[in-house]
Specification:
Helices cover 37% and strands 26% of the residues. The chain is α/β, with parallel strands linked by helices and 248 residues long. The chain has a single domain, classed as P-loop containing nucleotide triphosphate hydrolases (Rossmann fold, 3-Layer(aba) Sandwich). The chain starts with a strand and ends with a helix. This is ATP-binding cassette domain-containing protein.
Length: 248
């Protein structure tokens, strides 16, 4: 059976005046896939993600998220996705439990579901001793893992993660990816932007954006073979060097 497509874009573009942030990007993402959306800062990753989440209207092109049109059905899309922004996305002046209850309510969960899933989340992350503490008092790594878990509290079809591991230590980054793998096993699609090229190795497939355009899209293994290099960092370097030559 053909894998279920949960994200489809065709020539999706976003202009800000004369500046083209995303230029006719086309790709597909499948159910349960960990899809890396890579590129340097300013490459257009966050702009593309905001369009896919219904937070920013495209200038042109087409896209569907979980079968819904990003122009006409943004509210339906928002109910079926989880989103973790580049900046920490929970309320630091609320406790761990209060954040869970607040976002559970926003996601439309019943009080019983919030209590049950919230307890599972706290047990999974080992936060029982600090459940009543203000989130602002937690280390950054714990905040990020909590934010991801809250974004998946309502079992969304797709979770969008915008630079989720920025500023955290390597051990915490690896633990964070364990959460991503677990979500994928449950059938949740994870769409993750990052500028850490080593994290590309953890993805099922990756696309690499350069100056608002997708310049490569395949599995990490196939891309390394294509460019005859040993790492995704080298793949990115080759693409960036090629773009620089074209610009000279």
């Amino acid at each position: 059976m053909e894998a279920e497509k949960v994200i489809q874009t065709v020539d999706l573009s976003k202009h800000f005046g004369d500046f083209i942030a995303c230029n006719a990007i086309s790709f597909e993402v499948f159910k349960g896939e960990i899809f890396g959306f890579l590129g340097a800062n300013g490459a257009g990753k966050t702009t593309a993600m905001k369009m896919l989440c219904g937070l920013s209207a495209p200038s042109s092109g087409k896209a569907t998220i979980a079968g819904f049109d990003i122009y006409k059905q943004t509210e339906a899309i928002k109910k079926r996705i989880g989103y973790m922004s580049q900046k920490f996305s929970l309320y630091e002046d609320l406790s761990v439990l209060e954040n869970i209850e607040f976002f559970g309510g926003i996601y439309g969960l019943s009080q019983q579901e919030i209590k049950q899933r919230g307890q599972q989340l706290i047990d999974q992350l080992g936060l029982a001793d600090v459940a009543k503490n203000m989130v602002g008092s937690l280390p950054l790594g714990w905040k990020q893992k909590l934010a991801f878990s809250v974004a998946s509290l309502h079992d969304p079809e797709i979770i969008f993660l915008d630079e989720p591991t920025g500023g955290v230590d390597p051990v915490t980054r690896r633990q964070f990816w364990d959460l991503i793998y677990a979500a994928s096993v449950r059938g949740i699609t994870v769409f993750v932007t990052t500028h850490y090229m080593d994290e590309a190795e953890y993805c099922h497939r990756v696309s690499i954006m350069v100056d608002g355009e997708i310049k490569a899209l395949d599995t990490p293994e196939n891309l390394k073979k294509q460019f005859q290099v040993d790492s995704m960092e080298d793949v990115f370097f080759e693409l960036a060097r090629g773009a620089q030559r074209l610009g000279d």
